[in-house]
Each structure stands twice: as C-alpha cells, then as structure tokens.
Design brief:
Blueprint (H helix, E strand, L loop, with lengths): L1 H21 L5 H9 L5 H10 L4 H5 L14 E2 L14 H18 L8 H22 L8 H8 L8 H11 L11 H4 L2 H20 L3 H23 L6 E6 L5 E7 L1 H9 L8 E5 L8 E5 L11 E5 L2 H13 L4 E5 L5 E2 L4 E2 L6 H5 L7 H6 L7 E10 L5 E7 L11 E5 H7 E7 L5 H4 L7 E3 L11
Parallel strand pairs: 4-6, 5-14, 9-12
Antiparallel strand pairs: 1-10, 2-3, 4-13, 5-6, 7-10, 7-13, 8-9, 10-11, 11-12
Length: 462
C-alpha cells in the first residue's frame, strides 16, 4: 500500500510539473539551455566586473563621441537668463513663461525679466483641485470600480502639466513679475504639499460622492475649496491682486512706474497675444494617424478651460514649423523624452552619447513607434526651443533648448540636441498659427478624436 501511495504521489508531481510547463514556467531543461547560452568569454567577464562597481551610464559613455558638439547656431531667438525649477515638476510653467519672457525682453528693450512661476502655480493647484472635485461630482452615478472614477482617485493632483495649463491660467489670472510673488521653499519643493492636498482631495471626493442633495453640492464644494485655498496660502503665499512695478531699460534707466493687476499687466505687454487662440500644439506620435486632431479627456488644468488638443504631424512638418518660428525670433514651448541619451556634463542630447549595446552585448533596435507603443518612451519634460543650426540646403543639423534646471546644468543652462535625437525623442512643440501653411491650418477644423485620460502618451510633463 505504501508503495502505491508513493507511486501516486510521483505521478501527481509529474502531472503538476507538466501543468506548470503548460502555463509557461521555466523548466529544468529550459534553464539548462539558458545557462549554456552564457559563454563566459573574457569580454563578458570584463563587462561583469566593471558593472559590479560602476554606474551603467558611465561605462556606456561613448569615448568616440566625447568631443563637445559645435555650439554655433545659424538662427537663435534673443533671450536672456536661465531659470531653475528646483525639486518640482513645474517645467511646463517655466517653459511657458520663458517664451513670454523672451518676447518681453526683446520688445521692451529690457536687461532682464522673469515672471513669477509661484503665482501661476498657486492658481494651477487651486484649479486642479476644483477640476478633481467637479469631476467627482460629474461621475457620482458611476461605481468606484469604474475606470474613470478609479483614474480620478488615483490622480487627484500633480504639479506637472503642459501648454494648455499655461494658456488657460495666464489668460484667466494674468502674470506678475517674479519679485511680486517670489519662489519659496515649498514652491521649489512641491512634493510634500502635493501629497497633503491629494490626501485631502480624496477625503473630499468620498464626501461628495455620498452627498445626495445636488443643490447643496455646490456649497459643499465651495467650502472644500476654501480649505484648499487656505492650505495653498500657507504653502506658497498670498497671490497679489494689485501691485506696483517699475520698468527699466537695458541700461537700468527708469522708464515708468505703474500700478497693475495681474490681468492688466499681461494686457499692457502682451495684449495682442491670445495664448488660447493664437497657438497650436503639434505632436509627432507615430502610433496614431497623422493629419488628425486629438483631444485628451480631463487632461486640462481648469475645469471650465480647454482639454489638451493637438494636431499630429510627420516629423519633417513639425521641423518646418519650428524653423519658421525661430527664424522670426519667436521661442516655443517644446517637450521631449529628456532622459534618453542625455550627457549632462556636456549638455547634449545625442543618440551616440552612450553605447549600451556594446556594454550589454545585445542590440536595442526598437524605433520610435515601437518605443511609444510599449511604454518605453514618451514626453517627460518641457523646455523652451530657442535655436536651430541649418546647413546650406536649409536642413536642420542641431537644435537648442533653454532649460529650467539652473545655469550650471547642461551647456550654460541649455541643452543642445542633434537632429537625429530630435527626430527620435521630440514629441510636441507649440507654434503660433501665423507660421502655419493655410492647408495645415484647415486641418484644425476637423472634430477632435477623443482619447481617454489614461492614454499612455499624456503623462504630465515634469
């Protein structure tokens, strides 16, 4: 009997192993085959020894590409100064305001200028809180398990964003000089305040979903936003409603002193520039059909503002628009996958900066479309596109962006990218409509294709 039981157990074990194989597990035979594939050559041992005590990025740095790239550009926008977003995800604010700064410095003959990022960020956070609370109200009839509701509670608030936030917030709240509402510790380090606000929003969201009387929902939301406003004031300061500012020319001479509201300040210096109507975000997303307009649901900063809408174009047409803008001394909001092949000590973005294939002994052949589809690449950071270097035929050789990581980062605070890198890792640029061919502008008349708020390409730029 004991022998029969033992035999039965053995048969069961064989059956279990077979079932595991059928389910895709690694078998002993497969493991043996895998191990035989390891040649343990001298090159492999050398790579293993080096990687045991050194960062991969240092080991993969391409020694044949260490020479600094030529820093001369045939066309460059006039701008001055480098900003620093510190430990925050506000690159989109810095980028948008730096576009305005370049325009004001040039047109008003100023020695320097910087707008308050803290001011715009204060209202960004308030508006995003309202966006979340109102979205919770709008989806009250859906179960908590619904994907849209789940997405809302997973993402109640963040400090990232994109150009639509800049355009809606500036046109609604105006702008102020940096000295009127300066940066502070919390605005430079937004993580902890953001976590506390998110915790409070989730609490408020549950209360709103439990509220049965729709007539009192607005009053309840207003009470909640009052608490949120108080938290924001403690963290970032009181946003000014009126201020006095003295304008000086590039030689330091006083031009005038006036009292402004944030809205009148914008009207005084940018009155002819409608950020919501005059600009178009163009995307190069090879996973989607070109010459179509797309819209992202709930991907906005202001509830009563605009969802993120963009026109998807082939890379050559994106380049042509960017070149026209730079030639006309107009900087642009630009975003990309900045972490790919960035050599910080040189300040260059170049696909030849690192040779990961030689270090790891395998190839990495995916193209841009494949990387996007598999979540290996996507836009992560916004900067200000300010320069292009053209050859005699008018083709781009390299580009330059003004970054917001401080003057010591990169090349004098800027990043220089090769045209090949631009094609592979650039995703979007915001261009004034006046640089568009008429036939391209007509594409904007089509009804946008709505994409869900969790679409992988549209994580906020940090």
């Amino acid at each position: 009997m004991k022998r029969l039981i033992t035999l039965a157990v053995a048969v069961m074990a064989i059956g279990t192993a077979s079932a595991q194989q059928d389910k895709g597990g690694i078998t002993a035979e497969m493991m043996q085959q895998i191990r035989l594939g390891q040649t343990n050559s001298a090159a492999e041992r050398a790579a293993r020894n080096a990687m045991a005590s050194n960062p991969i990025a240092e080991l993969a740095t391409n020694a044949d590409n260490l020479a600094m790239i030529d820093t001369n550009f045939s066309h460059r926008v006039k701008t001055k100064g480098i900003t620093d977003q510190h430990q925050s995800g506000r690159c989109w604010i810095f980028t948008g305001l730096n576009v305005l700064r370049a325009k004001m410095i040039d047109e008003q003959n100023l020695a320097e200028m910087e707008f308050s990022q803290n001011y715009i960020f204060f209202y960004d956070q308030l508006e995003k809180c309202n966006l979340f609370l109102q979205a919770v109200i709008d989806t009250k009839s859906l179960p908590m398990e619904d994907r849209q509701v789940e997405w809302l509670f997973k993402n109640p608030l963040n400090d990232g964003g994109q150009f639509t936030g800049v355009s809606n917030l500036v046109m609604k709240y105006g702008v102020v000089p940096s000295e009127v509402m300066p940066e502070n510790y919390q605005s430079n380090n937004t993580g902890q305040v953001g976590n506390l606000l998110s915790l409070k929003l989730r609490e408020f969201g549950l209360k709103l979903r439990a509220q049965k009387d729709r007539r009192s929902t607005v009053a309840l939301k207003t009470e909640m936003l009052t608490e949120i406003y108080s938290m924001l004031v403690r963290a970032y300061g009181v946003p000014p409603t009126e201020f006095e500012w003295t304008r000086r020319d590039k030689d330091g001479n006083v031009v005038d002193t006036k009292t402004y509201t944030p809205q009148s300040f914008y009207a005084e210096y940018f009155g002819d520039l409608d950020l919501e109507e005059d600009f178009v975000m163009v995307m190069n997303d090879p996973t989607r059909e070109y010459y179509k307009v797309y819209e992202i649901e709930y991907d906005r900063h202001v509830y009563d503002g605009d969802n993120w809408v963009y026109l998807n174009l082939p890379i050559d047409e994106v380049k042509a628009l960017a070149i026209e803008s730079i030639k006309d001394n107009t900087a642009m909001y630009f975003s990309c996958d900045v972490g790919k092949f960035l050599l910080s000590k040189k300040g260059t973005l170049d696909v030849n900066n690192f040779d990961y294939a030689s270090l790891m002994g395998v190839e990495f052949p995916m193209n841009k479309e494949e990387r996007v589809r598999t979540f290996a690449s996507g836009s992560s950071h916004a900067m200000t596109l300010i320069a292009v270097d053209l050859d005699e035929q008018g083709n781009a050789k390299k580009w330059m962006v003004e970054n917001s990581w401080g003057p010591q980062a990169g090349w004098k605070g800027n990043l220089i990218m090769t045209d090949e890198w631009f094609e592979e890792y650039m995703f979007r640029v915001v261009v004034n409509k006046k640089y568009f061919p008429a036939e391209t502008l007509k594409l904007l008349e089509q009804k946008p294709i709505m994409l869900p708020s969790w679409d992988p390409m549209f994580a906020p730029e940090m």
